[in-house]
């Protein structure tokens, strides 16, 4: 497949991931009425960890030391990010949680700069700031007020996701996407079960309802297994700064779904924010694809494994 086609397909895949994660904001918020934060994460990642090798059993042979190391580091970063996000949303609004999580879109160019020792170009910075401003307008409410403890936890979540996106973009180039996704999910599952048993030993739900099963199915099979496979595969052909911008559309999509599902009002301010957010993603395409520049130069030396093998 030509590089241009791979780029288009990859970015379309990340847009699908953003849509899935946008719905995840609503599912997580509703699920916390039945689950404690750590047990919700344990259920989410454990189901995904069991399903992954059943679906991708032929890719287990591609797991080597490099995949194990990269997947374990990326998986633990994902889990830590979700811990801060899920605990944080208990003490703040869903809209503030989504907005502050999206701070990663501003941080990724600078985190990636620290990793490869090369400054981001001005367009990357402008696009990131424009996107964050758009998300702010999209999620703004009069009761935003001052930052509270939940907001600070969510900011830490955003910073962790910035590191994860940059790390994955730098190290995943020549690895099998299915194998790497499996290791990431296994790392998340192991960490989530251990932490739930230690910190919330008596908070496992006493009864399981059909709604709880549907929520876990959505979060584990779609928001985790499918979404992280797409992200892992797509970031092979997309600059981390562009990837973060596209993935940040989860906030805009979450707001739109909230309007459709909960009949929230969609104000002119929200329309403006949505336009700025999508405009920033389009702007980022001008110079950040970089097929042979700093991104390509940063690829680690490793044997190439095709995802369609």
Distance between the termini: 14 Å
Succession of helices and strands = HHHHHHHHHHHHH
Rounded to an integer, what's the Rg over CA atoms?
19 Å
Mean pLDDT: 83
Number of strands: 0
Tell me the β content. Answer: under 5%
> What kind of sheet is the major sheet?
none
Key terms for this structure?
13 helices, mainly alpha, about 300 residues
List the SSEs and their pairings.
Blueprint: H1 3-31, H2 37-55, H3 65-88, H4 94-101, H5 104-116, H6 122-139, H7 149-171, H8 177-199, H9 210-234, H10 240-247, H11 249-262, H12 268-284, H13 294-297
Protein architecture, described:
With 309 residues, the chain is mainly α. It has one domain. Helices cover 73% and strands 0% of the residues. The protein has 13 helices and no strands. α2 runs antiparallel to α8 and α5 packs antiparallel against α6. The longest helix is centred in the N-terminal third of the chain and has 29 residues.
């Amino acid at each position: 497949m030509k590089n241009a086609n791979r780029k288009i397909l990859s970015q379309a895949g990340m847009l699908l991931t953003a849509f899935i994660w946008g719905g995840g904001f609503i599912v997580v918020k509703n699920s916390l009425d039945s689950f404690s934060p750590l047990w919700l994460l344990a259920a989410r990642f454990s189901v995904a960890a069991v399903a992954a090798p059943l679906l991708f059993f032929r890719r287990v042979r591609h797991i080597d030391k490099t995949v194990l190391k990269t997947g374990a580091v990326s998986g633990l970063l994902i889990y830590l990010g979700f811990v801060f996000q899920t605990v944080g949303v208990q003490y703040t609004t869903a809209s503030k949680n989504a907005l502050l999580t999206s701070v990663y879109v501003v941080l990724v160019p600078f985190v990636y700069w620290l990793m490869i020792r090369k400054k981001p170009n001005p367009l990357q910075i402008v696009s990131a700031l424009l996107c964050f401003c758009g998300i702010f307008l999209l999620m703004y409410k009069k009761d935003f007020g001052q930052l509270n403890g939940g907001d600070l936890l969510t900011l830490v979540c955003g910073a962790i996701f910035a590191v994860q996106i940059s790390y994955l973009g730098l190290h995943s180039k020549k690895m099998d996407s299915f194998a790497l996704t499996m290791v990431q999910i296994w790392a998340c599952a192991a960490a989530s079960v251990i932490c739930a048993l230690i910190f919330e030993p008596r908070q496992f739900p006493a009864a399981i309802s059909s709604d709880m099963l549907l929520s876990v199915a959505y979060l584990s099979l779609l928001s985790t297994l499918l979404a992280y496979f797409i992200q892992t595969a797509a970031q092979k052909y997309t600059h981390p700064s562009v990837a973060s911008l596209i993935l940040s559309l989860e906030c805009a999509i979450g707001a739109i779904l909230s309007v459709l599902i909960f009949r929230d009002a969609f104000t002119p301010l929200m329309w403006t924010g949505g336009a700025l957010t999508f405009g920033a993603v389009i702007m980022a395409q001008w110079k950040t694809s970089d097929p042979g520049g700093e991104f390509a130069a940063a690829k680690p030396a490793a044997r190439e494994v095709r995802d369609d093998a």
